[in-house]
Amino acid sequence: MERSLNITCVRETRPRGRKAEMAAIDFERHDTPLTSDESRYEASRCLGTISCEACDICRLLCPDLAITRDETSGAIVIDLDYCKGCGICAFVCPKGAITMVVE
């Protein structure tokens, strides 16, 4: 016994028009200039200016295992006795929190 579908599939198209207020382009400036304090605050929100957030990228890519996490505070710790100074950690740090300094 064959069964056939009793529901017909009809492709419906609906207009996808935009609302008039969404389509209007406004080139006027709506923001006021920032004061020096406001601009410093906005700059501090930038991800590049935030210090280490312990993302563990440096720790995972360290070939000498010289980078560990402090068990009590959870902060990243670099053991300079084991570090050979390859600079991989400084290169991969997304925050720029690690810098290479000549001793």
Topology at a glance:
Layout: H1 20-23, H2 36-44, H3 57-61, E1 67-69, E2 76-78, H4 88-92
Antiparallel strand pairs: 1-2
Summarize it.
This protein has helices at residues 20-23, 36-44, 57-61, 88-92, and strands at 67-69, 76-78.
Word description of this protein:
With about 100 residues, this protein is mostly helical. Helices cover about 20% and strands about 5% of the residues. It has 4 helices and 2 strands, in the order αααββα. The protein has a two-stranded antiparallel ribbon with strand order 1-2. The chain starts with 19 loop residues before the first helix and ends in an 11-residue tail after the last helix.
Characteristics of this structure?
103 residues; mainly alpha; elongated; two-stranded antiparallel ribbon; single chain
